[in-house]
Amino acid sequence: MILCCGEALVDMIPVDLPAGGKAYAPHAGGAVFNTAIALGRLGVETGMVSGVSTDTFGRMLASQLEENGVSTAYLARSGRLTTLALVHIENGGATYSFYDENSAGRSLTFADMPALGDEVSALYFGGISLVAEPAADAYASLLAKERANRVVMIDPNIRPGFISAEHTYRDRLDRMIGQSDIIKVSDEDLDWLIEGEETIEIKAAAMRGRGPAIVVVTKGAEGATAFFGDASVGVAAPVTHVVDTVGAGDTFNAGFLAGLNDKGCLSKDALGSVSDDVIHHALSLGATVAAVTVSRAGANPPWASEINR
């Protein structure tokens, strides 16, 4: 099982009203939630660790996880409110305003974390859940506790506007990256993490020097490249009509993890000697499923039956 650890929230998506103007429609979301849903739709055994409310929105989140084949056994339920993210779409790109104070997700502590079963082979972390305490510290502690025997992947999916204590966030994220096996960053994330005018190749090498065996850099329409061992492998982004980019990176992550899982490579030993062909398969699957997601509105990843694999 791949266990996705992080935020489950409700995206408030703008919709046009018949008489003019806009309203906001609620949709289940969150970067880590989106990745869990995408993995479930791809037929990978998946669960989720998150603080989820017992309110109406929280029940919607749990229900959608179950409907998409994601186990809810590891959720921590509470009566606190669900995090809301107002989505602003401009020129096909999305920005967000978060309403997160004292929410069920943000208030998660390490004491709320479940004991993990032997079926859990990999942990995935990311998104805004790594920014705000106490949840961010709880996820960091879970990673530190479990990393010795389980593959760890992180996508920080950095939202600078959500970060209020940058020094604390950078320190925590550096520790987590140093304890991970795989890190996925966009080219913009990489520039935020490692400032300066150096090339992506130099910055990716510096990121690998912090600990991860594999660093994946996505570049939007220019595709993605993985750096590992003494090699690098890249894939082009499939040509598609872009409706919006909501959930694109989250879906890519699911495809990449599913691709490694296809080849039996979600273990510490396998990742240490992973081949170019395996990485190419994982990157290609990630790019393929992300292309489907951007071709339709919102975070709506494909089912296994929709793609060739």
Q: Which key phrases capture this entry?
A:
alpha/beta, UDP-N-acetylmuramoyl-L-alanine:D-glutamate ligase, 309 residues, 33% helix, kinase, Carbohydrate kinase, PfkB_dom
CATH C-level class is Alpha Beta
CATH architecture: 3-Layer(aba) Sandwich
The structural domain count equals 1
- Name the structural class: alpha/beta
% residues in beta strands: 15-25%
Low-pLDDT runs of 5+ residues are none
- Biggest β-sheet: strands ordered side by side in the sheet: 6-4-1-10-11-12-13-14-15
- H-E string: EEEHEEHEEEEEHEHEHHEEEHHH
Looking at the structure, what is the overall shape?
A: globular
* Tally of individual helices: 9
Mean of all residue-level pLDDT scores = 94
Assign a percent range to the helix content.
25-40%
Q: What is the end-to-end distance?
A: 19 Å
Number of strands: 15
What is the topological layout?
Layout: E1 2-5, E2 9-16, E3 22-29, H1 31-41, E4 46-49, E5 51-53, H2 56-67, E6 70-71, E7 76-78, E8 84-90, E9 93-99, E10 122-126, H3 135-146, E11 151-155, H4 166-178, E12 182-186, H5 187-193, H6 200-208, E13 214-218, E14 224-228, E15 231-235, H7 248-262, H8 268-272, H9 276-294
Parallel strand pairs: 1-4, 1-10, 2-8, 4-6, 5-7, 10-11, 11-12, 12-13
Antiparallel strand pairs: 2-3, 8-9, 13-14, 14-15
Helix pairs in contact: 1-7, 3-4, 7-9
Keywords: ATP-binding, Kinase, Nucleotide-binding, Transferase
Protein name: Carbohydrate kinase
GO molecular function, one term: kinase activity
